[in-house]
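Render this sequence as a predicted structure.
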Amino acid sequence: MSEGSIESDKEVGVALALGAIAVVGAVVMIAYPGQLGKAWGFAGAFVFATLAVGAVQLFD
């Protein structure tokens, strides 16, 4: 029997999920009529994009 390690693609899944939420934030930033909603959309997109990059680094 050969011993081998099993690699997980958990970082890819987490990054894709957080990236999808970041895209939703970007859509809110573009489509929301008021400035406050656009600001919250930008904040959400920025935070979740940062978390997506961090998740790849964390699980690597």
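Summary. Residues 35-59 form the longest helix (25 residues). The chain has a mean pLDDT of 89.
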